[in-house]
Amino acid sequence: MPKFEYDKDYPFAAFITNLGKYNEGELVGEWVKFPTTPEEMQEVFKRIGIGEKDDFGYEYEEWFITDYDCYVDGLYDKLGEYSNIDELNYLASKLDDMMQYDYDKFCAAVSMGDHTNSIQDLINLTENLDCYEVYSDIDDDDDLGRYYLEEVDVLQIPDYLRGYIDYEAYGRDVRISEGGEYTDFGYVRDSGSRFVEFYNGDREDIPEEYRVMNFETELTDEKRSEWAKDLAFDLDEFFRQQDPVYAAENPDEVAAKQALHDKLFDGKIAAIDQRLAALGQVEGDYLPNRVANYKELTGYEEFLDIDTDALRQAIQNPDPSRVEDMLNFAVKAEQEYAAEAAAYVQTPADIIRQAQALQDQPDDHLTGESIQTPRGSFHLTSLSKEQMEAAGYGVHHNSDDGRYHIMGNGTRTFAVVNAEVREREQQATAKELAVDIDRLCRDHIQGYIHTFPRADYQQEIIAARIMEGETYLFKTQLLNFKQPEATADTIRRLDEFEKDRGIGTYMVYQLKHTEENHLLRFEALDRLYAAGKTVDPSNYELVYAGPFTPGETLETIYRDLNVDNPEDYHGYSLSMSDVIVLREYGKDTAHYCDTIGFTEVPQFLNPQQSQEKENPLRTAEMTIEDDYNMIDGVINNGRRDEPHGKTSIRERLEAAKKECAQQKPSEGKRTGRDTPERSEP
Questions:
Q1: Average pLDDT for 287-302
Q2: Which helix (H) or strand (E) is 595 found in, with range?
Q3: Phi and psi for 614 in degrees, rounded to 5?
Q4: Rounded-to-10 torsion of CA 252, 254, 257, 259
Q5: 186 DSSP β-pair partners
Q6: Looking at the predicted structure, is the pLDDT value of residue 233 above 90?
Q7: How confident is the model at residue 681 (pLDDT cuts 50, 70, 90)?
Q8: Which of 215, 229, 308, 321 is surrounded by the fewest CB atoms within 10 Å?
Q9: What's the pLDDT score for residue 326?
Q10: How many Cα atoms occupy the beta-carbon half-sphere of 411 within 13 Å?
Q11: How far apart are alpha carbons 509 and 539 in whole angstroms?
């Protein structure tokens, strides 16, 4: 145990206060020395009235920290009134277990101000003391200069010249070059070792022996409801004051508070956290802290924070829309909880690809590239090594750089990307993209630096999300900056990364706001062709990107962007003349929003290509096929609302022709989607 300031035998104490009684004008609390124990904390809560009922029958269940007695140099200002008690105990335990030398080094590092923005940072600092070197006997530049020249002997100086040396000036230059500082514990400088974050801020990441808030208390539904009611009242008042949209959507205050109560009581808290974050509330602020306390007290489980009623309905009524919801939920759940489900190593997209490989052949997935090795030239297929093995191919040899497997089946041989090498390359690319995205966010988002002060940590998070396939989020964010000169290159590189990694996305292109494009807006494709025009990509700008997941179709995208716009969607409602580019497994297809449905427009992706009118088979497929990933130019799965086997393909095609003829607009009148009323942004 180190020697703390004022000869105390503990690093700090906190005055734990009953929040309910404090709000009533009565200060009821007790000093608690840290580190402490669960038993002691439970007794303290009992003594200060936590769990007792007020005059109206409501329990006192919340607390906060009124003050600290801190005996660690420089630590007092780092501790807050809503600090997590388990984190406080973790930090105190780490300090209490230190040797004196490490404790002095910790205090010196705190004096420098590095890694001291939160208790999480301070805890991590206790495990990274090798990043600092402390010289306890050096107090100024003169001492530092003499140490380097006389003890370290960095320069061979004759004795007769030592009386002419300005040790102070030399020491000043050394200090500046090293970025060192003088503290009450001596001279401290960065050793050059890498700072490693071993504690991520989650309670589950705190070792069990340091947790003191794990004692059991009786939690009845009545008590839970009371807590939820009280918290819902404060949340509604805050949202109503800070968020005009919330106030407009919830004019009935009583109903709004009841809805918040029900969500809290049922453990549906994720949306509340998101709204608080959107309003600038960060961890440690009053309301986020109260929500966190409520979660802790009620045993909140994040993986249960789903709409069970909707899921139940989807199971009981498996109509197409419900099945789509289930698929979307499955994809979202896999993305959010992949880290917690280590045993589950395959994504839905992986399963689809592997199932496809059982019937697909390498010829169906040629990229157009050839790979040269000393044994010859081999066509590159986009199938994976596992898919090739499923199709009956084995590894023959590897390319010299190790980036490709050469796989054959005895008669034919193809080149396949080495997934391990590609993964390493993609990780490096993701890190480079993360650095650029973080820099752009710091340049263009007000308050970003305050919210994410540690660029290195935030860049790691961004890189991880890019690797998980969430490129569309950052692409849309960059688009919303409205700074194409600054963001165009990064968006282009995100595009390349998506194609290389096989990330499924969709991109919405809308006509630029120019005089030349005015007559092209809201035009049906046949009228555009009749006027001698084409779908020229130079007339369009990218306005939004979203995930293209199993179960997604062009029509569901159209519905989502017109009925339930995402918060980050800043384009106008999807309408005729807009183009959606679908990216599936590294390949792009462009689709024009037409009078009825969508029409594929290959010339949008390849302007050099001759004007092609709609592919009727593919257009019909996108509308009526019921199986994901079966867009193959042959309508073979039937309509969504029609049982298989009722009619032949020819009959269905003829019926489709008749239907189209009946819907053909008369001269001078257009039918189909109504042109939405909108003002130019």
A1: 83
A2: none
A3: -60, 145
A4: -70
A5: 183
A6: yes
A7: very low
A8: 308
A9: 59
A10: 2
A11: 10
Single pTM value for the model: 0.40
Please give the share of the chain, as a percent, with pLDDT higher than 90.
28
| pLDDT cut 70: percent of the chain above it | 80
List, in order, residues 6 or more apart from 516 with CB less than 8 Å away.
Answer: 539
85-96 and 119-126 are packed helices; what angle lies between their axes, rounded to 10 degrees?
Answer: 20
Tell me whether the omega of the peptide bond preceding residue 484 falls within 30 degrees of 0, making it cis.
no
Distance CA 544, CA 569 (A): 6
426's torsion region: left (phi>0), alpha (psi -120 to 50) or beta?
A: alpha
Helix (H) or strand (E) holding 14: strand 12-18
Tally of CB atoms within 10 A around 127:
14
CA angle 546, 547, 549 (to 5 degrees): 145
User: What is the rounded distance in angstroms from the CA atom of residue 406 to the CA atom of residue 378?
Assistant: 8
Q: How far apart are CA 258 and CA 70, in angstroms?
A: 42
- Rounded Cα gap, residues 467 and 458, in angstroms: 14
Q: Rounded CA gap, 551 and 564, in Å? A: 17
% helix / strand / coil in the chain, to the nearest 5? 50, 15, 40
pLDDT of 276 above 60: yes
Look at residue 398 and give its three-state secondary structure.
strand
User: CA-to-CA distance for 583 and 266, rounded, in angstroms?
Assistant: 38
* Closest-CA residue to 194 (of 278, 112, 117, 127): 127
Residues 6+ positions from 540 with CB-CB distance below 8 Å: 509, 510, 511, 512, 579, 604
pLDDT in tens, 156-208: 777 777 778 888 998 899 888 888 899 888 899 888 788 888 888 887 788 88
CA distance linking residue 297 with residue 61, whole number of Å: 9
- Residue of 635 and 316 predicted with greater confidence: 316
Under DSSP, the state recorded for 647 is: S
Instruction: Label residue 492 left, alpha or beta by phi (over 0 means left) and psi (-120 to 50 means alpha).
Output: alpha
Whether 45 and 51 have beta carbons less than 8 Å apart is answered as yes
Residue 27 has pLDDT above 70, yes or no: yes
The per-residue b/e assignment along 49-77, b for 16 or more CB within 10 angstroms, e otherwise, is bbeeeeeeeebbbbbbbeebebbbbbbee
Q: How confident is the model at residue 34 (pLDDT cuts 50, 70, 90)?
A: very high
Asked whether the beta carbons of 583 and 542 are under 8 A apart, the reply is: no
φ/ψ of 33, rounded to 5, equals -80, 135
Give the C-alpha separation, 45 to 21, whole Å.
13
> How high is the pLDDT of residue 218?
58
**Which DSSP state fits 479?**
H
Cα–Cα distance, 11 to 75 (Å, whole number): 9
- Site of tokens 């277990």: 97
- Mean pLDDT score across all residues of the chain: 80
Residues 6+ apart with CB under 8 A from 438: 452, 455, 458, 459, 462
